[in-house]
């Protein structure tokens, strides 16, 4: 039987040895997953190394190595691999492109619908003939110009009325000031 003083030291040594074996299995699982192109996540590495995930979370250096391997390029060769970040960026770019294309398709469908509707209207005989349509456009332009000129004339008339009112007010003020000056008694300096 062993003494009680060596038992705790032996237990601590056994735990350290077990922890070292687990660490080696985790490192080997990370290297194997990176080389095989397998999934690199905390759960996958824990399964491959036959350790509990809490073991990985207690050993921050191992957890950091998993995350670094997960974010880095695969070990298959330089420039041949794809990182998770690049895949996510590519997915986001593809989604944005799909949204832009969808909006463009909708816009083109609306234009096509309007063009086909106009063509069907003309071909049905319900719409005005092309010559009358051109004449209507020719008539509409001078009518619009006349309406614009009427609006300008009304604006100038209102400006002229405002100027006349201001002029009347100024003349009234001048006349009142002149009347006050002439109505004051004159004082003579001579005795």
Mean pLDDT: 84
Percent helix, as a range, is over 70%
Poorly predicted parts: none
Q: How would a textbook summarize the main sheet?
A: none
Number of helical segments with 4 or more residues: 6
Number of strands: 0
Order of helices and strands: HHHHHH
Beta content comes to under 5%
N- and C-termini, Cα separation: 150 Å
* Class inferred from helices and paired strands: mainly alpha
Cα Rg: 46 Å
How does the overall form come out from the CA principal axes? elongated
How many individual domains? Answer: 3
Would you give an account of this structure?
This protein is mostly helical. The chain has 3 domains: 64 residues; 46 residues; 54 residues. Helices cover 80% and strands 0% of the residues. It has 6 helices and no strands. α1 packs across α2 and α1 runs parallel beside α4. It is elongated, with a radius of gyration of 46 Å. The model has no long low-confidence stretch (mean pLDDT 84).
Q: How is the topology of this model organized?
A:
Layout: H1 6-36, H2 42-49, H3 53-58, H4 60-71, H5 84-124, H6 130-183
Helix pairs in contact: 1-2, 1-4
